[in-house]
Amino acid sequence: MLVAQRPQPEPFWRPVMGATVLFDPITRPMLRRARRAAIEVLGLTDSGPDQDASLDEQMADLGDALSHALIIAGARDWKDVGRAVLDEHDEPVLVDGLPQFDELPFTAENLAIVLADPLAFEAFDAAYVIPFVQAERERAAPGKGSSPSPNGISTAETQGQIIAASPAPRATATDVRNAPTSSTKPKRKPRKRSGQS
User: Fold this and answer.
1) Residue 41: what pLDDT?
2) Helix axis angle, 28-42 to 55-74, nearest 10°
3) E strand or H helix that includes residue 94
4) Any residues with CB less than 8 A from the CB of 123 and at least 6 apart, and which?
5) What pLDDT is stored for residue 42 in this prediction?
6) Which three-class secondary structure state does DSSP give residue 32?
7) How open is the CA angle 104-110-113, to the nearest 5 degrees?
8) Residue 15: helix, strand or coil by DSSP?
9) Around Cβ 174, how many Cβ atoms within 10 Å?
10) Given the DSSP bridges, would you call strands 82-84 and 101-103 parallel, antiparallel or unpaired?
11) Residue 19: enclosing H or E segment and its boundaries?
């Protein structure tokens, strides 16, 4: 049987800090390569340099390194990215009080320069990596294809409130009805014959 492959998603443009960047969609192989690259960059081995760092710090560093590796692997082109024109004293050149910019072509080196700015890195991360992570979390959320639990309550149902918010009100004397007694059939009245009064 010939099995047709699903078409690969197309690259897409996203706005990033007034520029527009062309990204490849994040794929599983790309994610695996980025993880390996992030671990290598951080030196996270048994004898790695950050053994004294807290687990939170290591996780934050790993997240940043993973995002950086994904952005480097996924960015393909950009528009409206510029570099300030500097004079011989490394001061911005101003025209009518406004700084002048040269168009910055997309290259791996220029991308690395842009990502060295923490604000630019955060903007790339927010535009490219975070939407992917959120979509993955939604796809893996309970209730989205999750199997039912053994007791018959799905995982989505157990997230809701299953205990009453307040106890039932106490019964008062007026709420109580007389208990039924043993029933007796009523006696049948004899039929009157026609003509009798």
Assistant:
1) 79
2) 130
3) strand 94-95
4) 16, 17
5) 76
6) helix
7) 120
8) strand
9) 6
10) antiparallel
11) strand 19-23
Q: Two tokens at 81?
A: 């990215």
Cα gap 127→36, rounded to integer Å: 22
Consecutive sets of 10 residues in the chain, 197 residues long: mean pLDDT of each? 72 95 94 90 58 70 91 96 88 87 94 96 96 90 57 46 50 59 64 65
At residue 14, the 3 state secondary structure works out as: strand
How far, in whole angstroms, is CA 74 from its chain's centroid?
19
Rounded Cα gap, residues 127 and 14, in angstroms: 7
Token reading at 76:
């393909």
Overall pTM > 0.90: no
User: Residue 32 is encoded by which pair of tokens?
Assistant: 């695996």
CB atoms within 10 A of CB 23: 23
Is residue 102 within 8 A of residue 82, CB to CB? The reply is yes
Please report, for residues 38, 39, 63, 165, the alpha-carbon distance to residue 45 in angstroms, rounded to integers and kept in the order given.
Answer: 12, 8, 16, 50
Q: Which amino acid is at 73?
A: A
